[in-house]
Request: fold
Amino acid sequence: MPVILLLAGVFIFGSCKDKKTEPKDYINVSAYLKGQLKYIDTVPFAFLKLVKKDSIFTDSQYITKEQVKNIINEFLVKELEKGNFEKNYKEISFADATIKMVTINYESIDKSNPVSRIDVYVNPDKERISQVYLVRSKENSDSTITQQLLWKHNKDFLLVTTVSKKDQPEKTITEKIIWDDRPDEE
Reply:
């Protein structure tokens, strides 16, 4: 009997040792944003940029697709690439009944990552991403720049840039870029 228990223990221990951890099934945020950039290459719409500085409307102008891509490329850091993403971020997800979405939150494990937070809002009825929210920070010698990007699928995005300098009030610039202002299909 002790021999059988010993063999069973060795078998169980050996089988546990060989089990591999299942790969994480994170959303590929970088691929999604790159896909959205490819999508805007196909749209026949103009890109309207509305600017507010410290909550006061200051400007509106039409911008090019290249200018849109330059804004978004600042968020496409190497940490968001498929091979790096899973080791740089932890995931928390929940269903939010108030907005009728599934929210998937990715928080940076390493505080030095330029993109510290990502929220992906998934519409479970349409089975697609509805919005993506990213927070990016950059430390300069005399200031800290924090950017928040809210990308609405195939529609527009909002970029809020806050500049903080020592002994000075924060300055906030809000830019909304719109290319499709048609109502969403229900």
Q: What stands out?
A: Residues 1-19 have pLDDT under 50 and may be disordered. Residues 22-178 form one domain. The first strand starts at residue 47 and ends at 53.
